[in-house]
Amino acid sequence: xxxxxRVNTExxxxxxxxxxxxxxxxxxxxxxxxxxxxxxxxxxLNGRTVEYLNFYELCQVxxxxxxxxxxxxxxxxxxxxxxxxxxxxxxxxxxxPSPVATSDSPSLTLELEYPEGxxxxxxxxxxxxxxxxxxxYEEIKKPGSLIRIKAPQHMGKSSLLARILQQxxxxxxxxxxxxxxxxxxEFFSDLNKFLRWFCDTVTEAVAGNNRxxxxxxxxxxxxxxxxxxxxxxxxxxxNYFERYLFPEINQPLVLGLEKVDRLFxxxxxxxxxxxxxxxxxxxxxxxxxxKQLRLALAYSTDAYVPVDxxxxxxxxxxxxxxxxxxxxxxKDLAQRHQLNxxxxxxxxxxxxxxxxxxxxxxALYHIAKQEINLKNFLQTASxxxxxxxxxxxxxxxxxxxxxELEQAMQEIVANSxxxxxxxEIRFKLYSLGLVKLQNDEVIPRCELYRQYFHTSTKxxxxxxx
Length: 465
Hints:
Blueprint: E1 4-5, H1 12-21, H2 27-34, H3 38-45, E2 50-51, H4 52-62, H5 66-69, H6 72-87, H7 132-139, E3 146-150, H8 157-170, E4 174-179, H9 191-207, H10 211-225, H11 228-231, H12 233-249, E5 253-258, H13 267-283, E6 293-299, E7 318-321, H14 327-336, H15 343-353, H16 357-368, H17 374-380, H18 389-401, H19 403-414, E8 419-420, H20 423-431, E9 435-438, E10 441-444, H21 447-464
Parallel strand pairs: 3-6, 3-7, 4-5, 5-6
Antiparallel strand pairs: 1-2, 8-10, 9-10
Helix pairs in contact: 2-3, 9-10, 9-12, 10-12, 14-15, 18-19, 19-21
């Protein structure tokens, strides 16, 4: 009998739900419970082949019978194929065993995943950060809750937010995601247009495929919005949710707001909109109707513009700042990429890019694809021939569009000690992920950026001379 077995694709949602019901909010919790690596749990939960004994033990812990969730058709297919090969005259007398995941190593059949944008919900390459997911999952259950996720670009904000929203949806909430980065510029021209776009976007998402409900709500919104000229558009927006939207959905509404810091560029918008978010969050403490709303905000930097602390959503709720990956997490991720690295090799990678999620994953992807080895990677990473060339050039281009940022970055990489910058420049460079903050001072986020921008500065000086 083949050693490997996997969860039936149709049963995957049930298995993931059962894991949460059994109190395992994170994959690492289940891994520790059964004494297996997180890679094995990843494969099990995403319908990938694991050893039969691992499969059996996980079924016991989660309260399943093996036959309830096992993909026996796939198992039979593998077995039949093997039998045919053994019986075939042209086959070897000792066929190779089917690759499977063991307790210590990932499956050899794992399909590598190019790291780009949000990590898919079923990805075996998503790395859970200890305690953060659990805190978010617990917080989003609370009426009127507000979660704030802060981290620079490419650190995993969107991936975490997607998992919070999935958790909220599994709990029976209505979930809406709004990405301010993809909103047309025209909607930021004044508060009226912006709040109307906001209400339209939420309404369309709430109605979904129910065209009758969508038409009803939009008609009510059109009529109600006329009162904005008399009472103000913030009040019109708030009243629309109270009088029309909440009564129709009759369930908690979770809003996931991405790229919130884009609003800092629009003084006519951000003060009032942020004040509105703060107001409805506070009102949930006094009025039951606003307990239906839960907010999850993702942004890259703190406000570098004046915001009244009494009207800001950035000093209330659960605040989370995503850390870089630890040594153990990088090593585990290397194993998921089928790289049996030593601690010394992991340290070499971290020495160049730190625990930066995107930079780490991109390196592991190319090395696992055997497009480059670790030695050559370390030698070429900060050059035009390296795997980061497009990423580095894109960051450099952004700096060139804002000379004050470019000048500041040149100063940072030229110094061996932390540099003091103005609040706005400090936060903008942090938002890009180029620096780490040390109180009011900054240093390069990693050696890769120091090398690249130090070389870039020298080249610019040569060009000028």
